[in-house]
Amino acid sequence: MAFETDHDTILAADETYDLISSEKVDGTAVYSRDGEKLGSIHHFMVGKRDGRVRFAVLNFGGLFEADRYHPLPWNALTYNTELDGYEIGLTKEQLKDSPSFERGGEPTYDAEYGREIDDYYSRY
Asked: Residue 116 to residues 72, 93, 99, 107, 111: CA-CA distances in angstroms?
């Protein structure tokens, strides 16, 4: 589905100048600033009352390790068109030390956990 603007420009329904569908973001790669792939976006955590994306949950795992999920503050991510993915100002080692959980061990996203995440990422 597409929408026509006053300028006869057709914008895809899943992405406009200011908005993007979560379907386009899920699975998008996340890289460190030096271009190392850290994982991919698994899902979002969205505020029920204000509709703001609070966290993008990164799936971080490898062939020989369990999948780990790392909630990243949405504003810590920057989209890089050259990489066709998001960048974050962390190394793989810094990400390993960030708040995380394994599948089935999802945290309670309460105010205290939100502060823990924000405090960790505010260092970088």
From this structure: 11, 18, 7, 12, 9
pLDDT in tens, 53-81: 999 999 986 655 667 899 999 999 999 98
| Among 14, 69, 71, CA closest to 46 | 71
Structure tokens at 109: 């996203």
Cα 21 vs. chain centroid, distance in angstroms?
13
Cα separation of 89 and 33, whole Å? 6
Whole-structure pTM value:
0.79
Domains recognised in the chain with CATH numbers: 21-122 (2.30.30.240)
> What tokens does 8 get?
């006869």
